[in-house]
Amino acid sequence: MSGKTSLLKVILLGDGGVGKSSLMNRYVTNKFDTHLFHTIGVEFLNKDLEVDGHMVTLQIWDTAGQERFRSLRTPFYRGSDCCLLTFSVDDSQSFLNMGNWKKEFIYYADVKEPEKFPFVVLGNKVDVTERQVSAEDARQWCQENGNHPYYETSAKDDTNVAAAFEEAVRRVLATEERTEHLIHTDTVNLQRRPRSTTSCCS
Amino acid sequence: MAADTSHKVLFEQYGVFIHANSGDGCIEQDLLVSGSIRLVDKDGEVLVEYRPLEDSVDPSNMLCAGKDSSSVMEWGQSPEDRPHHGLEAQHSYETEWDMVNAVSFKKKTCSNGEGALNHSHERNRWAFTFSVGDLSSVTVKMDGWSYLFFKLKEASVSLPTLHFHQGGSAEFLDSLRRCALLRESPEDERCLLVSTANRALSQSFENLLEDNNFGLVHKLKKDPYVTTLGGFSKVTNYLFDAFRGAEEQQRRRPPEEVADLLGEVIPGLEINQQEESGFEVITRIDLGVRPEVQRGEPLSTEQWAEHQDTEGRILNVPHLKQVIFKGGLCHMLRKDVWKFLLGYFPWDSTLEERKALQRAKTDEYFRMKLQWKSVSEEQERRNSRLRDCKSLIEKDVNRTDRTNRFYEGIDNPGLVLLHDILMTYCMFDFDLGYVQGMSDLLSPLLFVMENEVEAFWCFVSFMDQMHQNFEEQMQGMKTQLVQLGSLLRLLDQKFWNYLESQDSGFLYFCFRWLLIRFKRELSFHDVLRLWEVMWTGLPCQNLHLLVCCSILDSEKQKIMEENYGFNEILKHVNELSMKLDIEEVLRKAEAICLQIKGCKDLPHSVSDILGFNTDEVTAGDPWSEVTAPRKTSPAPSPSPTDRGQGAFANGHGLLRESSQNGCGVSFVS
């Protein structure tokens, strides 16, 4: 990798109200707005950063969490390089739902090798005093579900937010380096071609 | 099969088996007939064909080979057949794999005995073909793999059950849905009743949600039919791509895939590209000059007073609406006039009648409110739907317009009202419940009404218009996106082509605009203005779509000059929020309406969207007579009253039930 900037797409998934938008805004604009609206539809922000000598543009996608919007949310999973599974430590249900979010992502993002795909787990709102999910439980879940890195974050206090996103970048770069030896980057084009040709010839 | 020129193959799947009982009494000695199923368009008639495999390939050999070689792997998973295989596909393949091993074992015992497979002519007797038009129902069952049972309208004909050992039944049903309407039988959800009167394009959207019912989740596979139709826009893609570097193309991969998937979710764009029946292809239409229009002053309290008779009936309503359309209302009037605009108060009601109505509606409101208020903690523990609604509402109320004085701070009474009205609406329409976005629609109403009961009933009226946006299938959203596409294409073919070339023809970037009627795009007070103007129903129906056109018209130059791609367009549009000038947007929207109205050769689909066919302007137009029978497509946006009645009936149904049984029983869905 030379001085070239690579574009990485990461997506924040998790129940409504766990703080996905707040995490994104804290990381990209370093602001926290208690009056933030709940997300309707899909939004994304870009952030340039350097990780271990790699220049990266991180494209962070944020989605509406309600089940009703699933079919209009899931197409945007495509092409993600990393998935940030998010729950809120003061909401045990959001923790319990993480498995579903992971499944939904793997299915709709069309992940070829789920066990190798980089996930990072974020337990947000650690600033609140009444926790419903302990750090141990969260770590255990991460361990049992593919050894995902776990970060306890607070978008409000700016705790661990950058660390979590940077970890996501590292995980992606690590997987890319692994696969680069095996597959030439042109695979993407080859994948798309058969479909285009059939549409021309049929 | 490729040499088949007179047929158009819409779908094809190999590895479809018939389990034929050999009939010699031995239960284990099932004959397995392997073959392929195809959906073929033959001169407009869609046929389902089942053909057993050629004799040269003996399925029993293949099954046995599968145990220790890779041949079954190739046979089942040829890369052309499955460009996408997500986790589910892999899972189902694993179960297929298990099954193959099991069957191959069985087969061996078979061939050791006397049940060896017969050959070609024996298998040919399993071939069958029928027209989709003759199909009465398809029953879908699962048993490790899925199998389909076809029932024809001619009841005497019975067809063998088809076992999709290699998967593909979901895709087959998807393709079938494009030719026929499939709906679940009320008696048995596994049984899909078939009718071909309507091409149920909208159904494919539902598949995404319904797939789980059958456990057959292969939706991501693109079928050839869509690919063919989509080919149109791809041509322009290549042209644009030619100007971009190869690297640029690579970076565009995810957006293209996202767009492809959106295309499956929002069906109908294919229609846009090829018009429903093929004869109304829109070529370049000269729209003529866009007229200059002026906005007016808001309706004043004096004007409003002049429009009332002594008993409080509202006079000369069309004129009143015209003034409101042109300039909106002064803020003081909103509390009164919105109730009429939304249809909560009839225009011709007297003051007395309205007071009586209010009394009745107040009772009704509090009866419904009591229903959820009186649910005990214990009941709530056993009512997950209510619990979910409640938790979602609590979360969203705390994230709605919190900078507005009416809702700011902690423990603001405005927040409690917002919460209570939304909870009561759940009781009013439990099937819909609470969907994100509804708090955005309620907030301005409550702000203006400053009264729980009146805000609730105005919200009910507004929701009658917006209901479809929030329903399970989001039909309202799909319809609007398709309609908006038609308008944009008419207004500026070049811009439309650009959007398509950037995989943005599904107009996903307008999602938030349409879902909550620009609530997040404009300042709070501009939202009030826009909504009251929209509620006049002037100058045509679906003004909000022209508002979209108006905004995009102002942005298209930048979008094209900057060569924005899929992501950039989405970002750009999202970031227009709070930067729009409502009066300018409305001025242009009206001008666009007049421009389209003045156009002679207006495509019928566009007149339908804007409701030009129903008024006198085009009534004398011979063109509209010719095309009148084409008015088969449902009204683009059912009138508020239509939906209102539906929603009302629903609400009353709930009420009646609950009043008979006391509190809380309306939770039974």
Textual characterization of the structure:
Chain A: It catalyses: GTP + H2O = GDP + phosphate + H(+). Chain A: It is a lipid-anchor. Chain A: One of its GO terms (molecular function) is G protein activity. Chain A: It comes from Muraenolepis orangiensis (Patagonian moray cod). The complex is a heterodimer of chains A (202) and B (669). With 202 residues, chain A is α/β, with parallel strands linked by helices. Helices cover 37% and strands 22% of the residues of chain A. Chain A contains seven helices and six strands, in the order βαββαβααβαβαα. A six-stranded mixed sheet of chain A has the order 2-3-1-4-5-6, with helices on both faces. In chain A, a hairpin with a 2-residue loop joins β2 and β3. Chain B is of the alpha+beta class and 669 residues long. In chain B, strands 4-3-2-1-7-6-5-9-8 form a nine-stranded antiparallel sheet. Residues 1-5, 22-29, 55-120, 197-252, 268-282 and 616-669 of chain B have low confidence and may be disordered. At the A-B interface, β2, α2, α4 and α7 of A face α6, α7, α8, α9 and α16 of B.
Mean pLDDT of chain A, nearest integer? 87
Biggest β-sheet: strands ordered side by side in the sheet of chain B: 4-3-2-1-7-6-5-9-8
Low-confidence stretches of chain A: 183-202
Major sheet size, sense and barrel closure of chain B: 9 strands, antiparallel
Number of helices of chain B: 29
Global geometry of chain B:
globular
Bin the strand percentage of chain A: 15-25%
- What is the first-to-last residue Cα distance of chain A? 41 Å
| Helix amount of chain B | 40-55%
What is the mean pLDDT of chain B? 74
- Largest β sheet strand count, sense and barrel closure of chain A: 6 strands, mixed
What's the number of helices of chain A? 7
